[in-house]
Amino acid sequence: MLSEDVKPAANLLVLGAGFTGGRLAAAAAQRGWAVTTTSRQAPQNPGPGHWLTFDSREGLVPEPDALAGVTHLFVSIPPDGQPGDPVLRLLGPVLRQLPLQWVGYLSTTGVYGDSRGAWVDEQAPTPARPGRSQARLEAERAWRSSGLPVQIFRLPAIYGPGRTPFRALQAGESRLIHKPGQVFSRVHVDDIVGAVLHCLALPASERPALLNVADDCPCSSTETLSHAAHLLGLPLPPLQRYDEIEASLSPMARSFWQENRRVSNRRLCQELGYQLRYPSYREGFGASLSA
After folding, report:
1. Tens-place pLDDT, residues 167-218
2. For the whole model, what pTM was predicted?
3. What per-residue confidence (pLDDT) applies to 9?
4. Exposed / middle / buried, residue 95 (Cβ in 10 Å: 0-12, 13-18, 19+)
5. Which of 72, 25, 77 is nearest to 46 (CA)?
6. DSSP assignment, residue 150?
7. CA distance 244 to 228
8. How far is CA 17 from CA 52, 146, 264, in A?
9. Which of 121, 184, 210, 243 measures 20 to 30 Å from 9, CA to CA?
10. Distances (CA, A) of 262 to 173, 243, 291
11. What pLDDT digit, counting tens, does each position of 105-123 carry?
12. What are phi and psi of 24, to 5 degrees?
């Protein structure tokens, strides 16, 4: 659940105000924070506070004066194909001049690689596969060596209103793929926001440098799709065995199916005391459908 104890009078910069960053910006503004957001293009529906352009591929960055006084920084911008992290590459010197009390960086549980279905916590090895997950791991390392007060949040699949299986089911575009023993972890976007705000309400000394943010229920994609179809009152598409359709999948889809792990939220929920708003996809899908 969202913490109500975050102290006001903070100045938050959200670099990458997309699905997750935009919801954090809105929640922070509701709590009285000054908020500045960025995106590559001007949003159709501007969120709270000020909006600035940040586009690493085009080299477009905010002017230093526009960032004066920022005390908290939230980064949800992915690697851009160049070494390290694009934010540090383009804004690192400016950020180091700011009175930053906290930096939150959104990473991925993909850095843990394939654990063959075993549980992984923040102490697990990070044999990230080449490509997107390896780039994330390199970006994490860049942030951790930046000298800034960084807290890294590792996320599994993110879902929430507008990002569920419902639309594909309704359009007849879903695929029911079965791979024996395969499970995935996931998290509702509002629990990411809630976990971040919960951490910000803690003393700085109690915020862990690394934190998994996932729900309590790793499970197969057939289970979640079946529940979504049940909520909509729609039939499931025909079952397809993964080994029979693997060759037809895109490289990105194959990389998704090649990793099998359960992500532990013990540190977040038991050690830090965060109470999940959506402990499983069941509660989360129902709320997303209502929204």
Report:
1. 999 999 999 999 999 999 999 999 999 999 999 999 999 999 999 999 999 9
2. 0.95
3. 66
4. buried
5. 25
6. E
7. 24
8. 10, 22, 27
9. 210
10. 27, 22, 28
11. 999 999 999 999 999 999 9
12. -65, -40
Structure tokens given for 291: 């929204």
**Which position has the token pair 């009390």?**
101
**Mean of all residue pLDDT scores within the chain:** 95
Partners of 255 in beta bridges: none
Cβ–Cβ under 8 Å, residues 153 and 104:
yes
Other CB atoms closer than 10 Å to residue 250's CB: what's the count? 8
Report d(CA 39, CA 28) in Å as an integer: 18
The Cα 87–Cα 139 span in angstroms is: 10
Backbone angles phi, psi at 215, to 5 degrees: -85, -170
| Rounded CA separation 164/208 (Å) | 30
pLDDT in tens, 252-277: 899 889 999 999 999 999 999 999 99
Q: What is the DSSP string of 12-81?
A: EEEES-SHHHHHHHHHHHHTT-EEEEEESS--SS--SSEEEE-BTTTTB---GGGGTT--EEEE-PPP-S
- The first and second tokens of residue 148, run together, are 């800034």
